[in-house]
Design a protein that fits this description.
13 helices; 76% helix
Length: 335
C-alpha cells in the first residue's frame, strides 16, 4: 500500500504550489488547462506500460445499475453542493435530498436481485470491509474537508497570496510522505483497531486546533501544525485502505475495489461540499471572516471524532494477518 500511495502524493504535494503560482502570475483557468497535457501524457504511458489484462470470464456490465447508482449519487452531491453555493432555488435544492434517497434505495433493491451489480453491496457483509469503507468514508469526509478549508483560511481569512497559501499547505503532504516510513511499525505495534480509533481522535483534535490560528500566528508554527495534520491523516488513510481489503477473498477484490473507490471519491466530494455548505450557512450574506472559518473547523473536527465510535467495533485481532499485530490474548496463548 505504501508503494501504491506514496507516488500518488506527489500531485497533492506540488499541486498547491503550482496552483498558487498559476493563479498569481498567469490565470486561475490554467489550473484546469494543465490537466490536458498531463492527461495526454498519462494516456500514452498507460498504453505503453500497462499490460492489456482481461478477466478469464468477464461479466456483463450492469448498465441499469450504473445509471441508477450514478443518478442517485449525482442528486445527493448536487443537493449538498446547493446548500453551500445555491445553483438552484433553495426549495428545489431541498427536494433533491429525498429524490436522492429514493433513487439510492432503488439501486439497493436492484443490486439485491442482480447477479453482477456494478456496486456489489453484499461486500458490506464483510466486517472489516464494512468498517473500513463506510465508517472510513465518514472519517474521510472530515479529513478531506480540511485541505479545502485551510487554503481558503490562509487567503480569505489571513490575506495571504495564493503562493503563500500553497507553500503553507505543502507541508501537509510532505509530512504525509515522510511518516509513511513509520506506518508499518505503528500498525504492527498498535493493530488496526487502536490505530484507527486514535487516528480519528487525533485528526479531529488537530482539525479543531486550526481554529486557534490567526493572521498573527508565525508562519513556521502554521506550517508545523499543518505538517502534523498531514502525518496523522497519512497513517489514517493507509490503515483504512489496508483494513478494507484485509479479509476480502481474492476472487472478490475487483468488486471490492470498485465499491471502495466510489466511497472514497464520494467522501472526498462530500467533505468539500459539507465544508463549503457550513461556511456559507455560518457566514450568511456577510463577508466571510476568520471567525467563520474557526467555527467551521471546529464543526468539521467533530466528524472524525464520531467515526471513532465505529472503529471501536473492530476487535484487536482484526486484520492481524496483514498488520502483523499480536493482540495480548493471542500472545499469551502462543506463549
Amino acid at each position: 500500500m505504501n508503494w501504491m500511495t506514496i507516488p500518488s502524493m506527489v500531485g497533492p504535494m506540488v499541486g498547491p504550489i503550482v496552483g498558487g503560482v498559476l493563479t498569481s502570475y498567469v490565470s486561475w483557468r490554467w489550473i484546469f488547462y494543465l490537466n490536458i497535457p498531463i492527461g495526454l501524457i498519462g494516456g500514452v504511458l498507460a498504453l505503453r506500460l500497462f499490460e492489456n489484462f482481461r478477466a478469464p470470464a468477464p461479466t456483463r456490465f450492469d448498465f441499469v445499475g450504473f445509471v441508477i447508482a450514478g443518478l442517485g449519487l449525482f442528486l445527493l452531491e448536487l443537493a449538498i453542493e446547493n446548500v453551500g453555493r445555491p445553483m438552484l432555488p433553495p426549495a428545489l435544492g431541498i427536494v433533491f435530498f429525498p429524490l436522492a434517497a429514493i433513487t439510492l434505495l432503488t439501486y439497493w433493491h436492484h443490486a439485491r436481485h442482480s447477479n453482477s451489480p456494478v456496486l456489489d453491496l453484499n461486500l458490506l457483509g464483510i466486517k472489516t470491509f464494512h468498517i473500513g469503507t463506510m465508517t472510513g468514508g465518514l472519517c474521510r469526509m472530515g479529513l478531506d474537508a480540511t485541505p479545502f478549508l485551510l487554503p481558503l483560511l490562509f487567503q480569505v481569512g489571513f490575506g495571504l497570496s495564493a503562493v503563500q497559501a500553497g507553500l503553507l499547505s505543502f507541508s501537509s503532504t510532505f509530512g504525509a510522505m515522510v511518516v509513511r516510513s513509520v506506518s508499518r511499525p505503528v500498525l504492527r505495534s498498535l493493530g488496526f483497531r487502536r490505530t484507527l480509533v486514535w487516528g480519528a481522535l487525533l485528526s479531529g483534535l488537530v482539525t479543531a486546533s486550526y481554529a486557534l490560528l490567526s493572521a498573527d500566528t508565525p508562519a513556521w508554527l502554521i506550517a508545523f501544525a499543518v505538517l502534523i495534520g498531514g502525518c496523522i491523516r497519512s497513517i489514517q488513510y493507509l490503515a483504512l485502505n489496508t483494513i478494507s481489503y484485509a479479509d476480502v477473498p481474492s476472487a472478490m477484490l475487483s468488486r471490492a475495489t470498485s465499491v471502495g473507490g466510489v466511497v472514497q471519491q464520494l467522501a472526498r466530494g462530500f467533505g468539500v461540499a459539507i465544508g463549503a455548505a457550513l461556511l456559507a450557512v455560518i457566514a450568511g450574506s456577510e463577508q466571510v471572516t476568520t471567525r467563520d472559518f474557526q467555527i467551521v473547523l471546529l464543526l468539521v473536527g467533530m466528524i472524525p471524532l464520531i467515526s471513532a465510535l465505529g472503529f471501536l467495533r473492530l476487535s484487536p485481532s482484526d486484520g492481524a494477518e496483514v498488520s502483523g499485530h499480536r493482540a495480548a490474548g493471542t500472545a499469551l496463548k502462543a506463549g
